[in-house]
């Protein structure tokens, strides 16, 4: 056939029923896309080492390191050990093996390098592995640890602790000591000082003394001036002594011991002036055993049945602890 003019083959979409790709725009976008290519898939290339001859290449055979704009070490085979070095800035914080500040179970000196809190308190927390929960990591307050964290505890290996405790300079029999009972596997127990072998030292004692005459016309018991003591709790023997007289014949002065506001009736003594005796001073001695709780007073009291009573010269109220 004699063709006149020039035929543009590039504009022909098909020749002999075969689809052709030309240089025309937007032809490739019309092709069906494979969304998930694999290494065995083929691409068309022009081989620069073979005068640009058309050839096929498997995707898996492309050398990524030879691609333009490729940065060395960006492509790492994660399936292989020691495949490459990851820059610390690219670590995933908290991921396994990626935290440079993690504490490891096989590295020495890590905890020693952490800043120390030199005065921990009960509310501070520790990390534990809970043996009752498959060793799950949990936190626990120091004060909740077995035995706690009592800063006021007395230790068996620390010197000078007891010397810092406030001293009771006048102990009494009812005061307590801490012991380990040798008859009970050295279990801790308390013991009263008064129950120690030998009584734990001399018992508590005290005395009230006064001089000079005092008088009363009261027919009910009143405290003789200065005759009162308030000892620590305990049981005491008590003596109230002196000498008494009454202004009238056949009149009496009655003395007795009172404890915690009540009279010890067996301690009462009567001093009676006989008819025509004149001014006679008679000694008296009251005695009783009383128990007080540490806030209760022990007193020497007196009264008259008539007339004016006088306690002459000196008088005393003495106590000594018996239990």
What is the fold-level CATH name, i.e. the topology of one domain?
Jelly Rolls
Shape: rod-shaped
Broad structural category: mainly beta
Q: What sequence of helices (H) and strands (E) makes up the elements?
A: EEEEEEEEEEEEEEEEE
What is the CATH domain class of one domain? Answer: Mainly Beta
How many beta-strand elements?
17
What amount of the residues lies in strands?
35-45%
- How much helix is in the residues? under 10%
Overall pLDDT confidence: 82
- The CATH architecture name of one domain reads Sandwich
Instruction: List the total number of helices.
Output: 0
Largest sheet: 5 strands, antiparallel
Euclidean distance between termini CA atoms? 147 Å
Low-confidence stretches: none
Radius of gyration: 55 Å
Could you characterize the architecture of this molecule?
It is a single chain. This protein is an all-beta fold and 323 residues long. Among the domains are: 162-200, no CATH class; 205-321, Sandwich (Jelly Rolls), CATH 2.60.120. It has strands at residues 14-15, 18-19, 42-47, 53-58, 125-130, 136-141, 176-181, 187-192, 205-210, 214-216, 222-229, 234-246, 252-259, 262-272, 282-292, 298-304, 309-321. Strands 9, 10, 12, 15 and 17 form a five-stranded antiparallel sheet that branches. The chain is rod-shaped.
Keywords, separated by commas or semicolons:
323 residues; Jelly Rolls; 0% helix; five-stranded antiparallel β-sheet
Short description:
With 323 residues, the protein is mostly beta strands.
């Amino acid at each position: 056939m004699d063709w006149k003019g020039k035929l543009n083959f590039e504009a022909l979409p098909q020749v002999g029923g075969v689809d052709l790709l030309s240089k025309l725009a937007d032809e490739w976008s019309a092709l069906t896309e494979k969304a998930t290519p694999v290494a065995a898939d083929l691409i068309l290339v022009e081989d620069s080492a073979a005068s640009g001859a058309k050839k096929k290449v498997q995707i898996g055979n492309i050398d990524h390191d030879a691609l333009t704009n490729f940065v060395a070490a960006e492509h790492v085979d994660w399936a292989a050990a020691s495949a490459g070095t990851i820059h610390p800035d690219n670590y995933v914080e908290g991921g396994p093996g990626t935290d440079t500040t993690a504490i490891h179970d096989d590295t020495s000196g890590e905890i020693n390098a952490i800043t120390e809190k030199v005065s921990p308190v009960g509310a501070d927390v520790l990390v534990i592995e809970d043996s009752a929960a498959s060793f799950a990591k949990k936190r626990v307050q120091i004060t909740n640890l077995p035995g706690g964290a009592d800063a006021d505890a007395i230790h068996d290996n620390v010197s000078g602790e007891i010397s810092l405790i406030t001293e009771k300079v006048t102990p009494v029999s009812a005061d307590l000591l801490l012991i380990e009972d040798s008859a009970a596997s050295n279990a801790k127990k308390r013991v009263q000082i008064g129950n120690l072998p030998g009584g734990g030292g001399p018992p508590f004692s005290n005395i009230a003394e006064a001089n000079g005459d005092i008088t009363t016309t009261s027919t009910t018991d009143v405290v003789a001036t200065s005759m009162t003591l308030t000892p620590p709790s305990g049981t005491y023997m008590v003596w109230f002594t002196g000498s008494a007289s009454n202004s009238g014949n056949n009149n009496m002065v009655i003395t007795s011991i009172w404890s915690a506001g009540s009279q010890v009736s067996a301690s009462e003594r009567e001093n009676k002036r006989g008819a025509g005796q004149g001014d006679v001073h008679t000694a008296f001695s009251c005695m009783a055993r009383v128990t007080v709780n540490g806030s209760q007073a022990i007193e020497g009291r007196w009264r008259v049945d008539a007339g004016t009573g006088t306690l002459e010269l000196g008088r005393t109220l003495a106590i000594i602890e018996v239990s």
